[in-house]
Amino acid sequence: MPALKIERQRFMTDIINPSLSSHSTRDDGSASTHLHRSHSDGSSPLVLGSDASTTNPGITKIHSANASWGKRTVWVILILLGCLIFIGSLENMSNPQFAFSASIFLDGYVFAAITPIYYAKFSDRVGRGEALSVAFVFYFLGLILMGSARHSPQVSAGDVLRYIGHAGVSVLPAILIADITTLRFRGLALSLTSLLPLINTFLWPPMVTGLGQTNTWRFGFFTFAIILPFFVLPIVALVVMAQRKWSKGEVVSSSSTSLAGRVAALDLLGLSILTVSVAFIIVAAYFGRISYGQKTSTSWDSPTVIVLLVLGLLLFPAFVLFELKWKKSPVSYARLFQSKIVLAILAVAFFQQFALLVSVDYQFMAHCELFCFHVSRASPQRLGSASAFYLRDALRMTSYGAAVVAGVTMLLTRRSSKWLLVAGLVVQLVGTGIMIRRGGAVDKAEFIVCQIIQGIGAGFAHLAIIVAAQASVIHVDVASITAFVFLLGFLGEYIGSSIGIEVWYKRLLSILGTQFPDKTTAELINEIRSWPYGSGYGYPSADPMADALKAAFKTVSVRLCIISTCLTIIPIAIAFFFVQTIELGSTQNAVDHQTLDGKTERVEETQV
What is the pTM of this model? Predict the structure, then answer.
């Protein structure tokens, strides 16, 4: 029994930080022995990585912190990160429902997309704890400003600050988990810390309904402003204190001796090009989606949108070329863009979200009468809006659970298999493809099953993408690759949903305009947007407009599902041909085989 207890303790230690079980040097003066992987040609795999680590003090700080933490401290950090993700997700799902103007979202979307890149750069240059504290300040100020706002400009400013802070609270936990967990347990840690938001599916519908009915929306912002510090500040304190204790006098940056060196290390020109590119793309997609399928000055085929979209799409490769030109700089993104595997993973991250969001929202809209109505000849009865939210979130709920299954699979197989990624994408394709069956005329059970199938595929794919991305780069690039996965996933989601809106309204207006020629385009759009939450509840069961809307919704939904199914083939092909299976061992990454405290694992090769 004592032997079993000792083995269990070793196992629990290896989950978090295997370097602690390999006799790492601690402040008690114990001996330090590390295994290192030797190369037959005598070359060092860390020439470039070492320079980058020196230029990025944040990496050296987290190495030192890992050397000082015990397993209990790391478990506490993981639990706090899970709670932080839970609070951030709940706030983001509930509070934006009460935004005063759709235009306020535009600024927020731009900042939500691009700020993860800045947080990643800042956390590398300064430190993980310091970056999280900056995100907390923005988040807290944004919540307070929105809760106390009296005018629209104050709401806009508060929403922008809130989006900036929420972006940091979203991406930095994924980066920290990559810093403090080994590859083998990375997937399980990421999935478990993201499992708590599953509870939000049952919390946010009654919150939105209750706050909306009682007109106490300000209470929501103030509540989250009070709760947030209890989860952020302990994490910041643990990380910053460990960094200061163990890295004092050790972090010396070769570029910190001059102002010019510090500015160059931030790569401000490259980040500016990327920021403008992302802003142009999001603004173009926003203008396209608010045209609602009409021929206007901001529709997809208008000169304004075309110019913005073309400039955005041209500036993105310009950013890549700029970084490749400065590939000798240890702070550039050249290492990422020179790796075919990394580029393939980023492409999969974009197209997976792009294909999913083209149709997923409109699958619910086309079949919401299954859940929002009990149609009878006497009178239609409305199902509570909270119940409709639950059913709409079936895909989200399933994806959280599926991610845990994927994390356990990685733990047991010790592989970040491309087959896990391909399988997830194929399952997502099947779930979307089933919606095409019988012209979209599915019953309630079939609809929920389709959402569950898509959620299983999305959950597997999401986790496989992030683990494969973090495993395919050296530690100094982990923050950057994580931020790029978030960025491209966000762009895929936003562009996909914008194209879905265009197809949705354009086809609906065409169908309904033929059946109701006496109604204007504005009247038809109002009918579409109010169904089933507005005047649609007043329709009798045999009303021509109600029947036409139901039939048209299903017809257009099938078309969107066909588009989504075809688009899902793209990430499947990329993953099949370009993504490789990665061995998930007891190191931080699968490239230079560093342990969590920055040492290099060396495995002596036996001569046969």
Answer: 0.83
Domain 341-583 annotated CATH 3.30.1330.60: no
DSSP 604: P
| 247-to-22, 25, 58, 375, 463 alpha-carbon distances in Å | 21, 14, 10, 68, 32
Q: Is 375 helix (H, G, I), strand (E, B) or coil?
A: coil
Question: DSSP states of 16-73 as a string?
Answer: H-GGGGGT---TT-------B---TT---TTHHHHHHHHH-HHHHHHHHHHHH--HHH
Structure tokens given for 331: 């702070």
Measured between its terminal Cα atoms, the distance across the chain in Å is: 40
Rg (CA), the chain: 25
Give the model's confidence band at 603: pLDDT under 50 very low, under 70 low, under 90 confident, else very high.
Answer: very low
List pLDDT tens digits, range 457-470.
999 999 999 999 99
Q: Over the range 280-294, which residues count as b (16 or more CB within 10 Å of their CB) and which as e?
A: bbbbbbbbbbbbbbe
Judge residue 585's burial from the number of C-beta atoms within 10 Å of its C-beta, 0-12 exposed, 13-18 middle, 19 or more buried: middle
- Exposed/middle/buried for 461, CB within 10 Å: 0-12, 13-18, 19+? buried
pLDDT of residue 44: 35
**Residue 469, both tokens:** 């991305």
- Label residues 336-369 b or e (16+ Cβ within 10 Å = b): bbebebbebbbbbbbbbbbbbbbbbbbbbbbbbb
User: 50-250+260-265, what's its fold?
Assistant: Growth Hormone; Chain: A; (1.20.1250)
Quick check: 386 and 205 in contact, CB under 8 A? yes
Tell whether the model's pLDDT for residue 133 goes beyond 80.
yes
Asked if 267 and 324 count as a contact pair (C-beta separation under 8 A), the reply is no
- On the CB side of 560, how many CA atoms lie within 13 Å of its CA? 32
Highest mean pLDDT among 34-48, 56-70, 333-347: 333-347
Q: What is the pLDDT of residues 495-504, one digit of tens each?
A: 998 888 888 8
Question: How many angstroms separate the CA atoms of 2 and 14, rounded?
Answer: 18
- Cα(249)–Cα(239) distance, rounded to whole angstroms? 17
Tell whether omega for the bond before 153 is within 30 degrees of 0, i.e. cis.
no
- Backbone angles phi and psi of 541, in degrees to 5: -65, -25
C-beta separation of 398 from 461 below 8 A: no
